[in-house]
């Protein structure tokens, strides 16, 4: 059990480091203008209009029906990967910073851009959630350490019952030996008349 907590804490630390980096990254590349849209680079071409970027993203997805993620551009400083989710039958995007952030894509061009923004807007909350989980896990580890130090509540009772069980086992072993001796004596007694009969026949 004690091995579980340090591993979990380490995983949260890595997650926190990723979120911290990516939250700062997203803050540095905030959407500008009325459309709240940053230029998106796709296949080497930078799109400054939201509608154009959305349509091109859909077109690229349709031309790439593969389940292996492939990099197609960047947005707000994050590298963009797309792939086809064969299980759920839709396209997905990974926003790649220090960590990867998955976005499920649909068939609406502008709707996909909204989904991307929504995913990035959730990063601060996820960072705080990871910090909370790490703190809770550390507290659980400390509690587990204290519990291990405590004496077993029924230690005396267990010791007494173990001693009694050992005594019973010894008695059973002795009884088995006594029974074995009695059986042997009985067999010898039964053999003697047979021998006498044999002597008379001679």
Notes on the protein architecture:
The protein is α+β, with helices and mostly antiparallel strands and 202 residues long. The protein has two domains: 4-139, no CATH class; 156-202. The chain is 62% helix and 16% strand. A six-stranded antiparallel sheet has the order 2-1-3-4-5-6. A hairpin with a 4-residue loop joins strand 4 and strand 5. Helix 2 (50-62) crosses helix 3 (109-121). The chain starts with a helix and ends with a helix. The model is unreliable at 196-200 (pLDDT under 50). Keywords: Methyltransferase, Transferase. Residues 176-202 are annotated as: Disordered. This is DNA methylase.
Q: What is the CA-CA span between the terminal residues?
A: 81 Å
Strand order of the largest sheet: 2-1-3-4-5-6
**Helical fraction:** 55-70%
Major beta sheet, specifics? 6 strands, antiparallel
Stretches with pLDDT under 50, minimum 5 residues: 196-200
Averaged pLDDT, please? 85
Principal-axis shape: elongated
Assign the structural class, choosing from mainly alpha, mainly beta, alpha/beta, alpha+beta, or little secondary structure. alpha+beta
| Number of structural units classed as domains | 2
GO biological process, one term: methylation
Keywords: Methyltransferase, Transferase
GO molecular function, one term: methyltransferase activity
Region (Disordered): 176-202
């Amino acid at each position: 059990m004690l091995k579980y907590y340090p591993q979990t804490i380490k995983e949260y630390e890595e997650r926190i480091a990723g979120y911290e980096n990516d939250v700062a990254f997203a803050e540095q590349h905030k959407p500008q203008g009325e459309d709240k849209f940053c230029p998106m680079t796709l296949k080497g071409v930078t799109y400054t209009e939201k509608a154009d970027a959305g349509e091109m993203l859909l077109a690229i997805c349709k031309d790439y029906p593969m389940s292996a993620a492939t990099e197609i551009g960047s947005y707000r400083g994050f590298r963009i990967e797309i792939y086809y989710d064969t299980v759920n039958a839709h396209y997905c995007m990974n926003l790649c910073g220090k960590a990867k952030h998955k976005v499920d894509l649909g068939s609406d061009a502008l709707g996909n851009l909204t989904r991307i923004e929504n995913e990035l807007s959730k990063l601060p909350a996820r960072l705080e959630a990871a910090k909370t989980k790490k703190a809770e896990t550390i507290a659980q580890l400390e509690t587990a350490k204290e519990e291990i130090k405590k004496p077993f509540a029924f230690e005396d009772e267990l010791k007494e019952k173990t001693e009694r069980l050992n005594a019973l086992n010894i008695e059973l072993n002795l009884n088995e030996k006594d029974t074995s001796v009695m059986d042997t004596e009985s067999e010898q007694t039964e053999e003697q008349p047979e021998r006498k009969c044999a002597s008379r026949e001679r």
